[in-house]
Write a structure and sequence with these properties.
elongated
């Protein structure tokens, strides 16, 4: 039972992280379309945000799997 709960927790973390990163990407594309001259700053902020979300998601998956 514990393994099943850990797998569900890890799956929820992955879904949440993918939704967050996809929202960042879509809003960054919208922002670049509105202000093309600021594309390098927007891209940098997008990549940093995506990396932070990915790091937190990886940490959460590890914590969920430790519960096995």
């Amino acid at each position: 039972m514990t393994g099943t709960l850990a797998a569900v927790g890890a799956g929820m973390v992955v879904i949440g992280a993918s939704l967050g990163i996809s929202r960042i990407g879509s809003h960054a594309i919208d922002a670049i379309a509105r202000q093309p001259e600021a594309s390098s700053m927007i891209q940098t902020a997008m990549i940093i945000s995506a990396a932070l979300i990915e790091g937190v998601a990886l940490f959460a998956v590890v914590v969920a799997m430790i519960g096995i």
